[in-house]
Design goal:
Belongs to the Glu/Leu/Phe/Val dehydrogenases family. This protein is α/β, with parallel strands linked by helices. About 50% of the residues lie in helices and about 15% in strands. The structure holds NADPH dihydro-nicotinamide-adenine-dinucleotide phosphate and 2-oxoglutaric acid (AKG).
Length: about 450
Amino acid sequence: MSYVESVLADVQQRYPEQREFLQALETVLHSITPVFGDHPEYQEGGVLERLVEPERIIIFRVPWVDDAGNVQVNRGFRVQFCSALGPYKGGLRFHPTVNLSIMKFLSFEQIFKNSLTGLQLGGGKGGSDFDPKGKTDNEVMRFCQSFMTELSRYIGPQTDIPAGDIGVGAREIGYLFGQYRKMRNEFTGTLTGKRLDWGGSLVRPEATGYGAVYFAEEMLQGAGESIEGKACAVSGSGNVAQFTLQKLLDLGAKPVTLSDSGGFIYDPQGISRERLEWVMELKNEKRGRIKEYADEFGVEYYPGQRPWSVPCDAAFPCATQNELDKDDAGKLISQGCKVVAEGANMPTSTEAIRDLIAAGVLYGPGKAANAGGVATSGLEMSQNAMHLSWSFDEVDKRLREIMRNIYRATAEAADRYNAPGNFELGANIAGFRKVADAILDQGVI
Ligand SMILES: NC(=O)C1=CN([C@@H]2O[C@H](COP(=O)(O)OP(=O)(O)OC[C@H]3O[C@@H](n4cnc5c(N)ncnc54)[C@H](OP(=O)(O)O)[C@@H]3O)[C@@H](O)[C@H]2O)C=CC1
Ligand SMILES: O=C(O)CCC(=O)C(=O)O
């Protein structure tokens, strides 16, 4: 058994129930296996054994009172996985499916994603099994306050800087920031994704979606093509999906689908800017369902289905993990889909990734393609530390540059390890090398 296989087997034996974490771990370890041939010092220094175990996991009770006066209790998490490259950084997810396995997979992925950004950011992630859907603003506020009362003990501008993820947008970040400020009596950049007036950065709301399209454009340009004129299937209809659509429209592409957990809509003429604005109001203010788009604009709604069966040249999974499986990959390949860029974290199953790459589809893994969000959070932290704000164009220019650098680092690592065009392998290796070197440099701690 090789070194990598023995570390993997040990984790599998210790945490057999952590399905999503093991899925993420297996993918990364499989990709980085060739690196250990060139770098025996990683094995000698026990880098992998240290990297697969989080530095710290905090699990806590979150009691709150609903509008009817009943006491509710949820579970809160923060997985502080690795701080070798900087303070822990990663979002908070509020969704009923949240559990330790999902927190660990997201936090583990964040280590390599943050490394790829080139910024000084460690990897962390957190959240709760609280479901904001159907809750009033006051209920969400009371939940956020209780969550932050406990979390505030473990975070800080030099320690751990949370942000948003599924179910955590500007409203939740506001309530979390307010409570952090009160508990710690400090106004610092300890959360990112803040509103502009109180410390946020221009482009942070747009950054993950814009970055995913920039990354897709880089992959296409590398193959002598462009996103312009391409029909694009997009899943989700939240933050990442909305701004993926906006950038696709800016670059002359034709987005044709959106989805939520109820199903997807297909608008074969292309979702226009006006219709996208309507979706933003539906989702961000009225908190409605995507089915209402079909009712409003007279297009087809497919309940309980995912959008990968429609004719498309490009696919942007922007909802959640494991939302694109082997069958879906087969459909995309048979329609001639050229590029899959992941706005979401681990949306594509392991078998589907294998099939896409084998079929020559340009596959941009989330840790590279959706790194624009956390990178712009890093830019928000820089602006907070300097007590100034950059213009929209300045931040967007930096985001564009960071995405280009991630593409280059990823493509170069893939070439170097004899797998040209395999951006999955390239992203895992390029992300891992920096973290591994930092772990060795800093001694056994
Ligand atoms: N926000 C960010 O900056 C970043 C986000 N990501 C990733 O992007 C993805 C989307 O996040 P974001 O847009 O912020 O979250 P939002 O909460 O804004 O939107 C999530 C969207 O995904 C859908 N969704 C969630 N869970 C499921 C499910 N189990 N099945 C089908 N659809 C589902 C939601 O539908 P419904 O409303 O019905 O639940 C909603 O349309 C996540 O994977 C996240 O980790 C990655 C990098 C940064
Ligand atoms: O902006 C951030 O810090 C976190 C973004 C995030 O959670 C992610 O990249 O998955």
